[in-house]
Design brief:
globular, protein biosynthesis (chains A, B), 24% strand, BirA Bifunctional Protein, domain 2, five-stranded mixed barrel, Gyrase A, domain 2, aspartate-tRNA ligase activity (chains A, B), eight-stranded mixed sheet, alpha+beta, homodimer, Aspartate--tRNA ligase (chains A, B), OB fold (Dihydrolipoamide Acetyltransferase, E2P), 3 domains
């Protein structure tokens, strides 16, 4: 069915042929994009990774090849040899459009059934079909472009880090279950039946051990695993650009990673990232944008109007303020003309973020219109308008509640307004910000105790050390996230390297000495032997590819992704296992009927 | 307990300081190798990844630092600042030996307990202790050197392949159980309780799918997993340099990989690999060296003496020949003086390879001595000696049996003699050979059927296609291994891309259409859509590091290896799992009492 190459060598790639190849005899190999008959000739568009080239067959060029070409169908894999000539009818829309190849010899390397999906740019087939026939989906030029970008990112990351004396070091995949964080994937052991390894959620502990070992600068582009319910844009296995440095403070890590990002974005996309990247504290980010990953491609800051409304006789505002909360607002330029229906929808929207409601003021040409008109005096209105910097034509949206609810709901509303009113002007902008001074702890109301906001090895800020025992909720950490266009691109921290401080940290997290030892034993032990000051960061490679390839679907940047249920349509994994093997592992299936 | 850096920056690495730094003020950071008192001064050897630098403390240099330095113990992590000066007593044995740093300021970044293993070159502590305190074991300069070599290999592999238009593409870790080969590690699924993913033994099927997708050239440095009983130099997880190319034949893959090897060995070790690398067929390798991975650093070929002995009245030889076997021998130069005891030991040695015994002839100054003297005529002896090219002073060792036993036992004896008599003269030699024309099938006597010698996608040689059904045992394949100093460094093959041929192959392997579809379904399906001719290769990265680092223990080249039982002394993995999590996975522990 398929002819052999028989020593035939490809001499160029399809997308590379240009006018300077005219009158050369070349050999191309690839897939038939289309095959048409025209004026007694046969024209095949031949496709490979680099592009498409027109091949022409004719009785007068080579009769045998011409006859064979007539039967060639889309997605056949073929090899063609012939002379490059100028096209009579050039196509200026394709890079190879000025030339064509006059085919003197055709080999059909393999035939193809009619593909169940059409191989072209911008396909919109059902996801399950795309994933089942992923090998065909990946033939689409836009998919190939994504993986060429992914390759370019990885290579430029490695080049930069290698130039900066980082060592690529591999860490284990079969490791111990990590005590905090998401659910681990388990791997049953055969040597120790009934016991399990865990796949790593990140190489965190191992990279810290490598610093204890004196490797000084480590990096790895590494698969990580989380057995979580898959929200959109999550995959059970994902890839991190993971790095760690010794003898550094926060400034050093930030500077190194700014250099990395600038290098990668320049190499891959020709984008000049302006350095230094701006910074914002977690507190500012929450107060101004209601998010620890603010999208700064548009203005619209959240403004505190508690002072302006504190004397209003409006129970919703009053009770929020009295309970220690606040009243804050967003100003939508040109929002004065919004009708009742869209405004009501915005009210519904904020309720999904636990806000009790959304008050609003419209500054129309003919006066003020408001959902809280009967509580507003002119003085209060003027005061709010002034604080907000609002003008005639604008709308003001107000939430009153405890601060966490105010921030979350107004932060979400801010993004929603940007979407609805197209506030992001430059779609190609890459707007970076470091978020710093994260809280060290998060309070878990259900369990009534503090959790580590990042992980228990994150260093508190020196200024806040005294509050570790007395006021843990206020302690800030040496943690930092790099945010790009409202998404977290990466994050890290300076780690604790002082074992006394680590003990205080464990205590604050509610660990006894025993339970800390049980859970983090080998790291605690390692830190008894002269650990260096160290810190690091991990970027989500998948997300970085999404940004640089301009896609919002994580499945587009992973060759063989799983669906929302972590199922692979292609290989049909997971699957049943051999009973004998399960016996060796000391486990048995125990599925309850539903 | 530990001082903070407080903005202090390292300006040089310990191993970098030279005479041209004299009179500069520098800051170094690292670990205390030793601390000694001498002539009213305190001398600390400070160590980091790059080497060791002498730091001197004195009352007159800086009294405060001098006082502090007195209490510093080995493996404390410290930072020192001061001026570089020439040493009064230079040490020409270390790269920094002409200079020292006069310490004006000392920070103790962290203290250290007395380490349970000594941090020095060439340690010989018990393996379990080394692995339990791996983070200290990895501080040893010789271990750090290994991982710097490993990093250098990976980087130069990536550089070469990137220059040759290979794309680094990641393939899934959570995949479907592979039907042939070693035992998979399983990963229970939570979304489909009672079902399992498998960790990949290699990305074989996925890389072939990527070729079907038109990625053209793929590579990946990737973790692979095999749940096998761990022989020496095996680890449950290991790393492959995996690559695949489209539109190629065996010559193209071999040439590309010779270029890769030459690049890596030059970059990493300054070794010039002479290209092209010599080649040998599997048949020649077996007949001459009794191995498909012959060590060619020394001569000593196996010689067939069946013709010479066929008329001897010796039942052992006779019956072997009559049964279709052969009589073959090795000649040990200078072996005539060997005493009876060492010769008897060699006899025992070959018995472990199923040989029934070892006949021998010693060509002594004063005549022939032999274990089979009573069967030897002068004519036969002369004939053997001539065929062997033996001289007075040599010994000839003979095995008669079926060929597989003759090859295996004499191949092993050849290596044993090389070891005992130190036949490998140049220990630094890198002797490469390609082994080609491997058998396509292996006959499984237990199951009474043929198995794929490599995997079922390996292409038969064109010349042997006709024998696929009639004489499968004789069919050779387009498979090739790269052998270095008697070890397999890598191997691969040209794959079948013709679906008719693939069907014939499955049939020859005893698969029905149904069972082939069940096991290899998605690859078979993919090959219906114009698969390109393709082939590839995988190198064992761990083994490559072992060669270039000069170690024979695979644990030395893996940061956190497991022991023979796949147990990690450091993290104590595997471990028990949470009962609730097992319930979610639909499995329960079912360990039988022994």
């Amino acid at each position: 069915m398929g002819e052999a190459l028989g020593g035939l060598k490809r001499t160029l790639m399809c997308g590379e042929v240009r006018e300077n190849n005219v009158s050369q005899k070349i050999t191309l190999m690839g897939w038939v994009q289309r095959n048409r008959k025209l004026g007694g000739l046969q024209f095949i568009d031949l496709r490979d990774r680099t592009g498409i080239m027109q091949i022409v067959f004719g009785e007068a060029i080579n009769a045998e090849a011409f006859e064979k070409a007539k039967d060639v169908r889309p997605e056949y894999c073929i090899a063609v040899t012939g002379e490059v000539v100028l096209r009579e009818a050039p196509n200026h829309n394709m890079p190879t459009g000025l030339v064509e190849l006059k085919c003197e010899s055709l080999k059909i390397l393999s035939e193809s059934d009619t593909p169940p999906i059409y191989i072209k740019e911008g396909l919109d087939a059902a996801e399950s079909i795309r994933l089942k026939y992923r090998y065909l989906d990946l033939r689409r030029p836009d998919m190939q472009r994504i993986f060429m970008i992914r390759n370019r990112i990885s290579k430029s990351v490695r080049d930069y880090l290698d130039d900066n004396n980082f060592l690529e070091v591999e860490t284990p995949m079969l490791t111990k279950s990590t005590p905090e964080g998401a659910r681990d994937y388990l791997v049953p052991s055969r040597n120790y039946p009934g016991m399990f390894y865990a796949l790593p959620q990140s190489p965190q502990i191992f990279k810290q051990l490598l610093m204890v070992s004196g490797f000084d600068r480590y990096y790895q582009i590494v698969k990580c695993f989380r057995d979580e319910d898959l929200r959109a844009n999550r995959q059970p296995e994902f890839t991190q650009i993971d790095l760690e440095m010794s003898f550094v403070e926060q400034e050093d890590v930030i500077k190194m990673n700014e250099g990395l990002i600038a290098h990668v974005f320049k190499e891959v996309a020709g984008v000049d990232v302006k350095l230094p990247i701006k910074r914002m504290t977690f507190k500012d980010a929450m107060e101004k944008y209601g998010s620890d990953k603010p999208d700064l491609r548009f203005e619209m800051e959240i403004t505190n109007i508690t002072e302006d409304v504190k004397d209003m006789d409006f129970v919703v505002f009053k009770s929020a303020i009295e309970a220690g909360g606040s009243v804050r607002a967003l100003c939508l330029k040109g929002g004065a003309d919004l009708g009742r229906k869209p405004i009501d929808k915005l009210g519904e929207f904020v309720k999904t973020y636990k806000a009790k409601g959304l008050a609003w003021i419209q500054l129309k040409e003919d006066g003020v219109k408001s959902s809280i008109a009967k509580f507003l005096t002119d003085d209060v209105t003027n005061s709010i308008v002034k604080t907000m910097g609002a003008e005639v034509g604008d709308a003001i949206f107000i939430v009153a509640d405890k601060n966490s609810v105010v921030f979350q709901s107004l932060g979400a509303l801010r993004l929603e307004l940007a979407k609805q009113f197209d506030l992001i002007k430059d779609k190609n902008e890459f707007n970076f910000t470091w978020i710093t001074e994260f809280p060290l702890f998060e309070y878990d109301e259900e369990e009534g105790r503090y959790h580590a906001a990042h992980h228990p090895f994150t260093s508190p800020m020196d200024e806040d050390l005294d509050m570790l025992e007395t006021n843990p909720g206020e302690v800030r950490s040496k943690a930092y996230d790099l945010v790009l266009n409202g998404e977290e691109l990466g994050g890290g921290s300076i780690r604790i390297h002082d074992s006394n401080l680590q003990q205080r940290m464990f205590k604050a997290l509610g660990f006894t000495e025993e339970s800390a030892q049980e859970r983090f034993g080998f790291l605690i032990d390692a830190f008894k032997f002269g650990p260096p000051p160290h810190g690091g960061l991990a970027f989500g490679l998948d997300r970085m590819v999404m940004f640089l390839a301009g896609t919002e679907n994580i499945k587009d940047v992973i060759t063989f992704p799983k669906n929302q249920n972590a199922y692979c349509y292609l290989s049909e994994a997971p699957n049943i296992a051999d009973e004998k093997q399960l016996q060796e592992l000391g486990i048995s299936i125990n599925v309850k009927e539903k």
